[in-house]
Amino acid sequence: MGVALIGKADLRRRMRMVRDTVDDHLVRSVQLWAALAELPEYAAARSVMAFVGMKGEPDTGPLTARLAVEGRRLLLPRVEHGRIVVVAADGPMAVSNFGVSEPQGPALDPVEVDFVVVPGLAFTPDGRRLGYGAGFYDRFLPTVDAPNAGVCFTEQLLDDLPTE
User: Fold this and answer.
1) β-strands 129-130, 115-118: how paired?
2) Phi and psi (nearest 5°) for 74?
3) Could you tell me what percent of the chain has a pLDDT over 70?
4) Sequential DSSP letters for 4-57
């Protein structure tokens, strides 16, 4: 088990470097959100839970704008007691202990989520994900009865990932 953890840590480090070297970040983010909008699961969603992009992640500003134009409700994650809770994005925001901008409104019932946009350091074509290591999405996704899509830049797509 220790070897797998060391392997994941090294892979996380490498994938952060790969992600952080994307030079046409904004243009590719806009293209990513356009591709996401073509998914039938997204098209059927009235509310979309996304995230606020951090350094190197896809820029979520264009997604937020798209959702507003389309009349969809944006929901965001907030970490409470080691777990993700769903919060409407229309209230005040604050920076968490993790350095992530999080909504400060009341927690909502996860049943209000119609579609989840999942961040990650790497993904495989069959849907496996390498996250940041805290397991927040690993614990959250099974609690939500909504389709989801992992988002990243093409350089972050890998044929295989270590999984547990």
Assistant:
1) unpaired
2) -95, 125
3) 95
4) HHHHHHHHHHHHHHHHHT-SSHHHHHHHHHHHHHTSHHHHT-SEEE-----TTS
